[in-house]
Amino acid sequence: MDFTLEDPNSLLLHFPVNPTEVNIRRDKSFETITLISGGELDVPQGVKVKEIAFSSFFPAQYDASYCKYQPLPNPQTAMNQLNTWMESREPLRLRITGTDVNVLVMLSAHNSSFKGGEPGDVYFDVTFRTWQDYKVRTLAERIGTSVGEARPDIKPVSATYTVKSGDSLWAIAKMNLGSGNRWREIYDMNRELIGDNSDVIQVGQELVMP
Hints:
The strands form three sheets. A seven-stranded antiparallel β-sheet has the order 2-1-7-8-9-6-3. The chain has a two-stranded antiparallel sheet with strand order 4-5. It has a two-stranded antiparallel sheet with strand order 10-11. The protein starts with a strand and ends with a strand. The chain is α+β, with helices and mostly antiparallel strands. Helices cover 18% and strands 31% of the residues. The protein is globular and about 60 Å long. The chain has five helices and eleven strands; from the N terminus they run ββββββαβββαβαααβ.
């Protein structure tokens, strides 16, 4: 299993020590309405952005018992790169081989610490939030800038997913929709592109997501 982060410029950070566990959090959002009778009603609004979090450390010295590769990155340089990425507005590609995690994310938080007796080692906790492309329209674009101009389409832009090597509809549904059982929703929306066999999808295909 390998943990990697890659930015749009193909700068790759390969975490040298695997975390002991990865936490993926999914929350459903609700709008609470106060009823005339005095009670409250929760109206479901959809699934919030998923969070992926893990902890590990950047060792100063190579140890074959837990290090994935060598030469190791300088711990402070690696932490500085995480700082740079956290301040960036560009998404990163987080991959965890051997799992379905292969998604665009934003680095939303990270903490670092040092331990006595381990000079040079830097321990860290990182939290990522899954990222989806979006389009912002100005007010002028929405209502037209002159009389007689056709009103622009203000319907929400559909989310898409580009198929990558090793993907399946079940895995895509599990990672992006929260349940692999929703694979048929993706298939039904992309039947013309995929064809009659839902088990066969091609790398590079752009799927419309529910």
